[in-house]
Design brief:
Rossmann fold, 3-stranded mixed sheet, FTHF_cligase, about 30% helix, metal-binding, about 200 residues, single chain, metal ion binding, magnesium, 5-formyltetrahydrofolate cyclo-ligase
């Protein structure tokens, strides 16, 4: 990664992180309800029966309600667990399962751990992001877990990043390893961006 791209990513992430921390509890509750409604509609539109999602941190657009409801409705939901080697293991979400703190302080599921290959069976990936641009390029938080996962999948299904409305930008700094997404889900809308992944 060139220093200029690295610096631009760091500066943008810092700005986005600060904005997220300023959201009130009432806003976060409304955000989570909005994200759930958008993701429910996306699942209905795509017919997905097996998906990956993530357990949101307090400052992220909330996904916990969506995950719990999807599991209750019989949708298979894989949740990621970070590994020290930069790969993601997966756990099948279960009703009322415990949540622990992962390697980087993020909420992660407790349960039977499946290998990184488990995600190859899903119909839809729902992933976190710091921001996404209008071409579908995603800016993550700098650890590369989801770029590695998406880059390693032979037949990648549609991928939607969950962000706030203000985090769909005209352009984000990008590097060669950065992976695009199919679209974004925000608390108020779902936007298709890139052509579906193959």
């Amino acid at each position: 990664m060139t220093d200029g791209i690295d610096d631009a990513k760091r500066a943008l992430r810092a700005d986005l992180r600060e904005r997220r921390q300023q959201r009130s509890e009432a806003m976060r509750t409304a955000d989570a309800a909005g994200v759930k409604a958008q993701l429910d509609a996306l699942i209905a539109r795509t017919g997905a029966r097996s998906i990956s999602c993530f357990l949101s941190a307090p400052t992220e657009p909330g996904t916990h309600e969506f995950v719990a409801d999807a599991v209750e409705r019989g949708i298979r939901v894989l949740l990621p667990i970070t590994r020290a080697d930069g790969l993601l293991d997966w756990v099948v979400a279960e009703p009322g399962a415990d949540i622990a703190e992962g390697l980087f302080g993020m909420p992660e599921p407790v349960g039977e751990v499946l290998s990184p290959l488990a995600v190859n069976d899903v119909d839809l990936l729902v992933i976190p992001a710091a921001a996404v641009d209008r071409t579908g390029m995603r800016l993550g938080w700098g650890r590369g877990y989801f770029d590695k996962t998406l880059g390693s999948m032979q037949h990648c299904p549609p991928v939607y990043a969950v962000v706030f409305d203000t985090e769909l930008l005209d352009e984000v700094p990008r590097d060669l390893h950065d992976q695009p997404v199919t679209g974004v889900v925000t608390p108020t809308r779902t936007v298709d961006l890139a052509s579906p992944r193959r």
